[in-house]
Amino acid sequence: MVRRALKEDFASAQEILDLAFAPSPCESTLVECVYRSTEVFHDWVYLESDRIVAYVLYTQACRRDELVGWHLAPLAVHPDFQNKGLGSELIEQTLLESPISDEPVFVLGDPNYYERFGFAKTESAQCSYDPGNQHFRAMRWTEADEAFDIGYSASFKDAEAAMDD
């Protein structure tokens, strides 16, 4: 079952992120920074027998000061539940949820995985985390007239700073 995440799900989400991305704490640090911020975000969990086993977060994407959609990141499935289609189901369902369903969505990840959901390479929206956009994809995106660096929420910089400490 997929449902919106609640504040009390935060610890479970962090645990799943830490296990799925071990040994890196980057993703759980990002989610912690987002939760502490006043930024607009949307997140969902996947429950299996009332246990949270997967998590996805969407944060705002921008072009300069204009909001242009959402970033899907991170997505994590508990290692004991991986390779069972739960991550795919979580993505498929959340891409249909408002307000995500009404806007472009961007993702930095394995192109072979994300292209199955309709993500495609973008030329105009450039990702500073992926020079050359080899792994950066978008869906529901209409190419802009000129290339620009896609903006991420301030929490991404906060998470980077926290990792440097």
List the helices and strands and how they pair.
Elements: E1 2-4, H1 10-20, H2 26-36, E2 41-48, E3 51-63, E4 66-77, H3 86-94, E5 105-108, H4 111-114, E6 120-121, E7 125-126, E8 136-139, E9 148-149, H5 154-164
Parallel strand pairs: 4-5, 7-9
Antiparallel strand pairs: 1-2, 2-3, 3-4, 5-8, 6-8
Helix pairs in contact: 1-2, 2-5
What does this structure look like?
The chain is globular. The protein has helices at 10-20, 26-36, 86-94, 111-114, 154-164, and strands at 2-4, 41-48, 51-63, 66-77, 105-108, 120-121, 125-126, 136-139, 148-149. Helix content is 28%, strand content 30%. The mean pLDDT is 95. By secondary structure, it is of the alpha+beta class. It has a domain at 2-103 and 152-164: Aminopeptidase (3-Layer(aba) Sandwich).
- Proportion in helices: 25-40%
- Under CATH, the homologous superfamily of the domain at 2-103 and 152-164 reads Gcn5-related N-acetyltransferase (GNAT)
Q: Average pLDDT, to the nearest integer? A: 95
Structural class of the secondary structure composition? alpha+beta
CATH class categorisation of the domain at 2-103 and 152-164: Alpha Beta
C-alpha-based Rg, rounded: 15 Å
The number of strands is 9
Shape: globular
Put simply, the count of helices is 5
Unreliable residue runs:
none
Question: How are the strands of the largest sheet arranged?
Answer: 1-2-3-4-5-8-6
